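Sequence only, no structure available. Ideas?
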Amino acid sequence: MSSSPLNARVYLDGKQRNPSPVRFSYILPGLHTVEIKMDGYQPWQQNIEVIERLAITVNAELVFEDPVIADNNEKNLIFDRSNDPQIKNSSEIWTGDKLITRFSQPVLTAVWDNDQNSIAYQVGSELRMISEDGLHDFFVTKLSSSAAIKIMFKNSTTLVYSQDGEQKQIQIRDKDSFIPTTRKFLNF
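Reply:
I predicted one. Tokens follow.
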């Protein structure tokens, strides 16, 4: 049993065990409740059915309890980094003095990914990503409503957002195939 981050408290059927990663032996067959907790993260819980002579691997991705997301009403910036995307005229995404894209409907949220080569943003009830040059745009997920969400990146391929009081995370698997970076060069 493992977790990200490591060294989280692990509970099996309500009893605290060693911190993650941990390996259990001799667990009776049947349904068991596994909980993984760490200060600053939402508790993770799953019911697991143990079958005799069958090994089970559990990997828990813990989500921040209260991500550090600053909301600057004047510029509507996510994270407190001076070069993050700005939303201007309610429907444009800018980085510094460069226009990235413009929409016919309001942009509600915009944030750089960890590599700063693409921007995650919300338009209406869609969560989308766009390359830093504005040329490559792709759909990430449909949201349950068009209410503004808070977005952050857990790492370069995991996007975390908060909506309706619940945090959700999405694995962006093919981001690099959609969004070329200026770090890739061809030699002739």
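The helical segments are 175-178.
Hope that gets you unstuck.
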